[in-house]
Design goal:
single chain, about 350 residues, alpha/beta
Length: about 350
């Protein structure tokens, strides 16, 4: 790829990321991404940092990875001059004043570091629990059994604590009344079976690069992937980290296909097994997707009413890159059902379950 082609490709990617930031909404990142695009065209530090990744899929989000790296340094106290402008660090949110420092940070970075950064769209976005809880309630209502919860792509495992958050709607409530994470009237068009509280007896997850929320480094890393002006998301994340520190869960370093096959080989009589994931599927190679699906379907084929198996997914729909569908497939004998439609981040869920 020639330099001119690489510039055009990076500019198009940054335009797409700008649209994502505007839709989130994150005016802070939207402005920075527009400046990054200009800097790529001008051959500045942004170009030098990102040029070797111009041929990578847009879904690798290298522009956001670069911003996450700077955000990490801000939250770690390494760039106090930028902290004065980053809302996540108590700053004034002045993007124009922040840009020279961000550009300088790009100039300081080794381009190879970007390859080491994880995707900024982390699966422990706690707002997704507002959708996932509906699937767990469906399972609880149908089976009435304790639940074995298995999460794929858990990152820090924050969504494995979904029953420790509070949900309220239609005169119904579920979860601890004093939970700092609350979903009130989060659903439109209907309400999940919040009166069928799931009893999660065991919970575990896997990730290729798990993050330890109990460590200071893990806490900073998780926050760095959020948009600096996403105040409500940051508040929820920090509250979820505290809950995870009080009640640690197991997140194994493993590939999801191998891990789920091993876990499902362990029979769980008298329990409902729920394999679940959120905004995870799109990042997997086709071969890994196939192995995961085959392992779940094999477990489903031997499921009984005393040991049912469920596959709960909150993933991007086939018809829209914006809409995220909550789907549940159950064994024995259940069809694949659409339960609700939401978005990647904080957004009401249209409940159809």
């Amino acid at each position: 790829m020639s330099d001119s082609e690489a510039r055009e490709r990076l500019a198009a990617d940054l335009d797409a990321y700008h649209a994502v930031a505007e839709a989130s909404p994150s005016p802070f990142y939207a402005t920075l991404l527009a400046r990054m695009r200009e800097d790529v065209i001008a051959g500045g530090p942004t170009w030098e940092l990102l040029r070797r990744y111009a041929d990578q899929p847009r879904e690798e989000y290298y522009g956001f990875r670069a911003l996450a790296g700077v955000h990490h340094e801000v939250l770690s106290g390494e760039r106090p001059e930028l902290a004065a402008h980053y809302p996540s660090a108590g700053g004034d949110g002045d993007t124009g004043a922040a840009w020279p420092g961000v550009r300088e940070a790009f100039a300081d970075h080794d381009p190879e570091l970007l390859a080491e950064l994880r995707h900024p769209l982390q699966t422990n976005e706690t707002s997704r629990c507002g959708a996932l809880i509906g699937g767990f309630c469906e399972v609880a209502q149908a089976d009435g059994l304790p639940i074995r919860a298995l999460e794929l792509g858990s990152s820090a495992g924050l969504n494995l604590h979904l029953d420790r958050y509070r949900y309220e709607a239609g005169g119904l409530a579920l979860g601890p009344a004093d939970s700092p994470i609350r979903f009130a009237d989060y659903w439109v068009g209907g309400v999940p079976h919040l009166d069928a509280a799931p009893r999660i007896e065991s919970r575990a997850g896997c990730d290729l690069e798990p993050v330890d929320p109990a460590s200071d480094a893990g806490s900073v890393a998780l926050q760095a992937y959020l948009f600096p002006d996403g105040r409500e998301r940051l508040r929820e994340l920090r509250a979820a980290i505290e809950i995870a520190r009080e009640r640690p869960v197991e997140v194994e370093r493993a590939s999801a296909d191998d891990w789920v096959a091993e876990r499902l080989a362990e029979h769980a009589p008298g329990r409902s097994t729920v394999v679940f994931h959120s905004i995870f599927w799109t990042y997997l190679p086709e071969s890994v997707r196939h192995r995961i699906a085959a392992a779940i379907e094999a477990a489903g084929a031997s499921a009984t009413t005393e040991a049912p198996v469920h596959w709960l997914r909150y993933e991007v729909g086939a018809d829209s890159p914006v809409d995220v569908e909550l789907r549940l497939r159950s064994w024995p004998g259940g069809p694949d059902r659409l339960l609700g439609v939401g978005r990647h981040h904080l957004h009401p869920v249209r409940w159809v379950g």
